[in-house]
Amino acid sequence: MPGAGDAPPILDFSKFYQSDPASKKQLVEGVRNCCLHNGFFQITGHNVPIELQNKMMDWNKKFFDLDLEQKSKVNKDTTNTWNRGYELMKSQILEEGTLPELKEGYYIGDEISKTHPYFVNKKLNSGPNIWPSSDVLPDVEDFKATSLDYYGQVVSLAKDILKVLALTLDLEEGYFEEYASGAVATMRLLHYPSQPPDSPAKLTRGIGAHTDFGCVTILLQDKVAGLQVYDYATKEWLDVAPTPGAFVVNLGNLMMRWSNDKYISNLHRVINMSGEERYSIPVFFSGNPDYVVECLPNCAKKGEKPKWPPITVEQAIKHGYADSYGRAEKWKRDDEAKRQGGTVVQAKEIADA
Q1: Reported CATH class of domain 10-352
Q2: Which of 173, 152, 257, 161 is CA-nearest to residue 213?
Q3: Secondary structure (DSSP) of 129-182
Q4: Phi and psi of 22, rounded to 5°?
């Protein structure tokens, strides 16, 4: 069990691929302990090459180096309705009571044609990707190829992580295969500028304290820190230092719900006060949008009523999106109304509200 106050431990995931049962069991125990403690762990020894990680991160930086007018040509809110493309700075508020977040993003997913049943039936985050034109990004074909290669390999890793999670819950290794079949996953390129020195510390976030909406998130960090995980035992925020080649893995609300709250979907946030630009790439594995999530075997005692009613993957994820984006839109409307009334919103007023 990780000790109170410890950052998420780094586990050697190569033990999953080895033929030694003792090594595999050791990995399963390590993952189980992390899921029970804080719902976070880090992995090395996976199958995603560090060269591909680095190349994807380089493209992350190249995209956000474009000027706002160029990025806005692929704005997700004006070019499509299926959550692909560029997201403006300050579009979200995940932590209630804070200011709109200092991050910009770019959403990528599986290439789903407009004839695919998922697109036709307007399923969760399902449709073709929205790429910059070659006049905006001359090497866009390499950007596409790198992004889709990286996305595919991380999604494959997520499915392996699910096999380990099944074993931690004393289920068959392939228990989650039906849920993972036809799964929707979303990759998000993220850029966090450093917070201005005069910004109100208690209100300004790169991304506010939140739990993820889906099942498993796999995060690649660059060299600049800022990610923090909340430790319920010590009631303190723990820094997650970037480790070359490692992925940060955390459980989302769907897995917590599935396990009847046995496993933890933990609070985490980003506060970038480094004076440098921070970049990261999370891949959110949601699962088959039509799959119904209900209490897992072994997670409720005989005769005990589950804490959560059944819910589809799509319903669960859409509820999370509606909350966080709706919160930011409300803040902007309220701010504009106050400005038009001659009152500029000050940080202290928001803090006291």
Answers
A1: mainly beta
A2: 257
A3: -----TTTSTTHHHHHHHHHHHHHHHHHHHHHHHHHHHHHTT--TTTTHHHHTT
A4: -65, -40
Q: What is the 3-class SS of 282-340, one letter each residue? A: EEEEEECCCCEECCCCCCCCCCCCCCCCCEEHHHHHHHHHHHHHHHHHHHHHHHHHHHH
pLDDT score, position 302? 86
Are 114 and 124 a contacting pair, CB within 8 Å? no
Instruction: Round to whole Å and give the CA distance between 213 and 118.
Output: 20
Residue 220's closest CA among 66, 35, 54, 24?
Answer: 54
Q: Which stretches of the chain drop beneath a pLDDT of 70?
A: 1-6, 322-332, 334-336, 338-353
At CA 47, angle to CA 46 and CA 49, rounded to 5? Answer: 105
Q: What is the DSSP string of 18-78?
A: SS-HHHHHHHHHHHHHHHHHTSEEEEES-SS-HHHHHHHHHHHHHHHHS-HHHHHTTBHHH
Give CA–CA dist 8/36, Å, rounded: 12
* Amino acid at residue number 51: E
pTM exceeds cut of 0.85: yes
d(CA 283, CA 93): 19
Q: Which helix (H) or strand (E) holds 11?
A: strand 10-12
